[in-house]
């Protein structure tokens, strides 16, 4: 319990900052939507003037941007990126925090098993990403309702946040696994960040080139589409199951690697 409290306390400031950043993205997105709506600009003609490659990179596909649900779905890409970075960094840092701060000997010499140390850290991680997710949910419903005649699209946003939480779990597990396997925090966070960039670039490449469609399976950014979640209110069950199973495997590898790791004091 002390490990859990310490981990939660150590991440309060960073969690607030991440949540504020997410709320700002949602606020800015809805303000941009309102700006387009007030200007009476033909969004279809406006977007048709941009190259397809640019549209795909920024997550703008064939959705109707004149509707709140369509406009909001575009921002799911940014939600995924921000949530992925937050989750993966938490996992990588939490597992090796004591070694980074050169105080591992004060914790690991106590009469407790490593399982009793790593488990509260991972639970703290799940609580943190859940708080981040709920803040995203609340801000989304609030700002959407302001620009949609009081309708916050509760059911659509709920499905979207469920998909986001599954992605967050995957990246938390990925970061924790790197934190347990690699020798130091800097290396773990660097590799984790490189993985996120790699996943994103693969997802863009798949959108740009049809021949690379077979690569969708290796990037979690293609497991859920914002338009499918927000407009069709459909969560891909196979994608959710795959990500949850992989997350469980990564958490298991984290426990094994952490138990066999030579700790630095």
UniProtKB/TrEMBL annotation:
It comes from the Bacteria. Signal peptide: none annotated. The chain crosses the membrane at residues 12-30, 71-95, 122-145, 157-180, 187-206, 237-258. The keyword Membrane applies. The keyword Transmembrane applies. Keywords: Membrane, Transmembrane, Transmembrane helix. Pfam families: ABC2_membrane_2. PANTHER family: INTEGRAL MEMBRANE PROTEIN-RELATED (PTHR37305), MEMBRANE PROTEIN (PTHR37305:SF1). This is ABC transporter permease subunit. The lineage of its organism: Bacteria, Bacillati, Bacillota, Clostridia, Eubacteriales.
